[in-house]
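Thread: Newbie trying to understand structure tokens

Hi all, I'm a second-year student working on a class project, and my supervisor (Dr. K.) asked me to get a predicted structure for one chain before our next meeting. I've only ever worked with sequences, so writing a 3D structure as a token string is new to me. If someone could post the tokens and maybe explain what I'm looking at, I'd be very grateful. Here's the chain:
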Amino acid sequence: MLIDDIHDPADLRALSHSQLEQLATEIRGFIVDTVTTTGGHLGSNLGVVELTLAVHRVFESPRDVVLWDTGHQAYVHKLITGRKEAFASLRQAGGISGYPSRRESPHDWIENSHASTALSYAQGLAEGVRRRGEAGRRVVAIIGDGSLTGGMAYEALNNIGHAQSPVIIVLNDNGRSYAPTVSRLSEGLAHLRLNPSYVHARERARRLLQRIPVLGGFAYSSVHGFTSAVREIVTPHRFFEALGIRYAGPIDGHDIAGVEQALAHAAEWDGPILVHVLTKKGCGYAPAEEDDVQRLHDFKVQPSVVAPSALQAPATYTDAFTQAMLQAAERHPEVFAITAAMPGPTGLLPFQAAYPHRFLDVGIAEQHAVTMAAGLAMAGMRPVVAVYSTFFSRAFDQANLDVGLHGLPVVFALDRAGITGDDGPSHHGVLDLALCLSIPGMTVFAPSSAQEIGPMLEEALALPGPSAIRFPKTPARQASDGLVGSGLSARRTRRGDGSVCLLAVGKMLEAAEEAAGKLAGDGVEATVWDVRVVSPPDPAMLTDAAEHGLVVTIEDGVRVGGAGSFLVDALRAASTARPLVPVRTLGIPRHYMAHGKPDAILAELGLDGPGVAASVLEAMSVERRRAELS
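---
Reply by user tm_fold:
Sure, no problem. This is what the structure looks like when written as tokens:
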């Protein structure tokens, strides 16, 4: 197996093109075997096998800087930079990341899992290299899988062209992001993709004319001039060169020799140049190629069925959101759904199918999504912006000043909130509570069960100002007893003896109730509240909490500036007539959390039932000692 002999990019340069084709086949098989076992990003990596091999044959990483945007298309890069043996641990606790990682290899310059950033890194690196006089070092940014729909990428293109920064941009054009890519530029790229005859005929004519004795060079130049004139009408060429960036392509991204030649020529260019490469997402693996929606963008390993009771998997919060949106749209014709390249993962595909004229996928452009939603709200619509919690941070300025400052009724549905697991520090949704709670007038909902989503969405759509509903990726807790809250009220699920009150935010209700059961075994009868609405907090809940000897808040967001500190401030404001009750806030610490299974990470942080119970007992012991000393 050739793949077993590749430990460094330099090993590729000794291979013939027939050997490279064999290696590409072996790499695809290895990736399929690995990802279908561990889970991970499949389609995007199958599409860049030949492209990656060509990049590493032409450029000398890590002396030459190779940047990947988005980072989920870097598995082949990882394989040929010495990490093959570690792939069995891909995205597993203690194993290698599913994205480039500076801790893993000098070949990984950026830990790039949020899209549309690599061009900005590239310009900074290229300017730094130029100013340090490091001749011969090249900076290469592979941008694709929808990254060119993000506004930050356009900002970088504008500045790279203006400064004539020596960046080699490889546009991996597979026509998709998570789903089919949305943009006028991508329509232009798709036009070329769907009409390859122009490219093939041009290249065939060039090869034939160059073979003509004596006149071949002149004839070739004439045809080259003609095709240069023709391509002036091609959208990508006009677009990039208007920005000051040389354009080359399009090129078959699965032709290693052709891509190598294009990259070698690009490396000789003094200023910025873009090499447009056409690839097929999921290439070489039939299930991915036949997946029209995502091309098996990511592969999720399904849990084994272990008992008859497990035959039906519990509903997810996303499933509940899908149902709630369809019901809300039927009742309210002004409901409008927006997402940023995530119609499938956020559960909006059924909404799109049922209400295509009340749905918009803006591509990887969260900032635009939020401010556009503000405009929709100004026009009398009721927009719902569905994004991952981790991506909401990209649009915080817009949520704060374009929505919050104007007091507009925009609903944010923040999926994948809290500890998400396998994708690591860039994807844990631990900032949304702190961000939303800092926006004046923002109502913040945190459902503790799938059945809470519908009532909360209905309440949010009736509010005069902005709101957010945040829910996790993990399977949803089922309110099998039918007990859910209503309006903006909290819900007390357990009445204790006045010793300790647990205020649980969202999914942490399950841990709080388990902790209360364990505390009962130690003679402590805890009161448990399902907070439901963090802001504004329920006055009845605050009044009840203030009458306890200890209050413990529990959340799966950052502890600093999060729900706990917000509730403590509210409790203090509501308790002016009595001594402030001692409070402990439990949440995510202020550091980047590695990847791993969500339940295991939460347990390690003491945010499961036993951990919460232990924290309560410790806090009660501290308060007893403090009382004895006073």
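A couple of things are worth pointing out once you decode it. The chain has three domains: 2-298, 317-470, 491-629. The chain has 24 helices and 19 strands. Feel free to ask follow-ups in this thread.
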